[in-house]
Amino acid sequence: MSTSKHAGLRKAGTAATVAALTFGMAGATAITALADEPTAGGSTGSDNQTTPDTGIEYTATVAGEQVSFTKDADGNYSANVDSIDQMPASKLVVLDQDAKQVATLNLQRNDAPDDTSVVGVVKKSGSATYTGRATAVSPTFTVNIGKYSQKFGQPVQYAGKDITEGEPINLGTTKLPDDNNPTDTFKFNDKVLGFDWGDLSTDTSNGTYTLYRQGTSQDTINLTNVGAGIDKTWVVQFTKRAVRSHVWNTTVDGKDYTFTLDNKGVEQVTLDKGSSYPQDKITVDGSSKFDMPGSITVSKADPSSKLGQVDVEGSVTYDKAADPKTPTPAFHAERTFAYTGGTALTIKGSRRNLLKGTNGKTYYTKVSTLNLGPDNEPTDDSKQIVLTDGEKDVATADINWAKDENGKPDVTVEDKTVDGATSKFVRRVGTADGTVKVTDPGSGKTMEVPFHIIATADRAQDKSFTGLTVTRTDAKGQTTVYDGTKDFDQKFSPDVHEYTLTLPASATGDSYTLGLTRGVDSEAGTPTIALGEGASRVLKVTVNGVEYKVNVKFQTSDIQADSPAKLSGIYVNRTGENTKGQLIDNWNPNRLDYVLALGEKDPSPYVLPEAPEGVTIKGGNVTQNAQSTKQEWIVTDTASGVSRTYSLTVTRPVKTAVTEFKPNDPAKQDPSEDVKTPQDTDLTSHGYVGKDGKYVKVDKDTYEIPEGGAFAYEPKNGQSATVTVSHEGMTYTYTVNVLAQDGYAFAQHTYKVTYITQPTHLAQLTGILVDGTSVNGFDPDKREYTAAVNDPNEWMISPQYDKTTGMSVSTEKNGPDAVITVTSGDGLEKAVYKVHVTKKLLGGDGNSAMGLAETGVGASVLSWIVGILIVLGGAIGIFATVRKPKSSDDGESPEDPTGTQPDEASKSE
């Protein structure tokens, strides 16, 4: 409650009494109303009233709040109240300052219209005035109430929300049964109510054909309060719609479609473009099932790109009228179609189609089954070409082969050059002409079509020799290819027969093979390898009767800066006897890398490195392949700790499975597919022919061919194809040259294959020698071993393997551990062996270990003899011993280095 600012409000001594009154009506909701009564202590009588004293303060209590009166100039008293939150009482008592009743005032209300917007609630409001006096002559008392308001009843709710007067409650939708008679009910006001359902109607506003019945229901709510003058009845209305949506579908060519309702009330669908002659009716299913007849229009029927076929285009519509009895709407479906009908004719025996020429009328093709023989006559000289649809012959035509003015075969040589490679084709041309009737079985359209067949007989001519390469393979199987067009001393040309390739000295110990790039018709021998001057290699091959040679030479080792860690010499006895031989060629203490070239029949050499006093020699890594073995020595100056590594590479020409391998010529497969266009240069497939003779297709450009297989490819009918080949080791590159049916379009397809053979795919050792003695329990599949030696820091390891396979071996030592990596000749397989040595117990046989490991102990001249591992078949051998120099303490003379020491690491056959 708010009051006037002049009133000086304070709480009354006693609160207003609020009486709860309950009223009801039969059949209506009972509502509880609240009404204010006069405040306690007030009286409507006048027995206790006294004549007001104008000097006394007067008060009254309005809605529980005390108000004070203000005297005006005429001696009358008044008070103002802004608003109260309840109905004003019918009487108001005025008290003096001693709480004695002075006067009782009467109420006059000015009511505003009732607010009944919320069902169950009546809001009363308005303004009011109290007036009265104690006696006929006393001053008057007036209390003005600016606004009063009070709500009676409680809000009636549905689904947790107040109900607004005059607003129907929408209960949503329910399914309309198939008999169109819904029976839905609902609960409200502790009653179960039903609906009055309207007529069956149609709704298409949401794009769906929908049948519905509108349902309505209502109930009344009453509120009565006699004291407040309230007697209100509300009517609450409810609505609900029973609906049933109809959806129709159809399936055409295996695809499902759903009809949609357009803005004209027609169920319609547009079908995907057809690829065949359309069906004369479609079946509609869903809310009901029926057939719709079609009306077909063919707008085009022309000869197709392949002889025997017809290109057909058109449209079809399917319609059904609306049926108000069902009721169902009208239906409409439509589609266009385009297809190629009929059977493409082929040349009998070749499956070759005839394609439409540029004039759009004449069809032509090339007969790829005819090959030109050495006498330039077709090897299969048929006098007629027969056209067939696969079941029966439909036309024949004679072939007229071209002849020159002398009546001899008229041939041409066709050249095509791509990326510098030229391919030649010898060709003879013939023609055959005729007409044939073609029919589309769907539309029944028939037409007479002329054809002109260009019969060609080809013979590929390719004796080209376009390149040489040298492939270098190190001990780890890593390869480097040197191209004769840029890496030799002069650019490769078939007219130049000898070349030089110069490589660093570090490449001396690697393996080398010669590769060719040539046409399949060229005649090429097997490349050979021999040692030239020093450690150089001489690679030779004969192509088309001409010998070509590549000299692989190596630069001399560079001279290093002087160092205290140096040998006094490396001595070689080429006879193989265990006696000190000649100082190695090009000796210089500061040249660290040396090469020793052996002939194929030369004996294994005896090698003796020597060091001055105070310098130790320790065996280092060993790197081996079929054609060379490289031994390293770690030379250390004991005073300064400075070390350097010397190496000796021993080479010998050896034939291996890699150098001797030669695959079968590429196998051209008979065509099984026709070209898509006269300019088509794509192959049908490629792959290999296995040793069982079966063709295996491969979908990659780089792949492996199993043992006994050969590269193969399949051109298309109408194409001419040849192959050029080059190789690097076991990896061969085939380039298939394809001339299209039109005789002009040309393309090349390149494939890289690695041939797998048992020896070139092998990566395993046959044994391991530690200080000349085989490790215990060696098995090629066992990868880790242990052995006992005199000194784990100075010992010799010698891997044994079959060098004829072309595999390479790399050995890395680190103190008592060694890791041997074996790489197969084709570079695809690797095997790693590990060896760990420990010091022998006292009392062990130390001769063999001393013979390989003892170095640099108290001698003025220390010699250490290192053997080089033997190549299987006596190519390279080991003779190892240690010459122990005279000690300053024992007075003995040095042992004779002629083999008196046991040759424990010695020779591996």
TrEMBL record:
The keyword Membrane applies. The keyword Transmembrane applies. Residues 662-679 have a biased composition (Basic and acidic residues). The chain crosses the membrane at residues 861-882. Residues 660-683, 884-909 are annotated as: Disordered. This is Cell surface protein with LPxTG domain. The lineage of its organism: Bacteria, Bacillati, Actinomycetota, Actinomycetes, Bifidobacteriales. Residues 1-35 form the signal peptide. Keywords: Membrane, Plasmid, Signal, Transmembrane, Transmembrane helix.
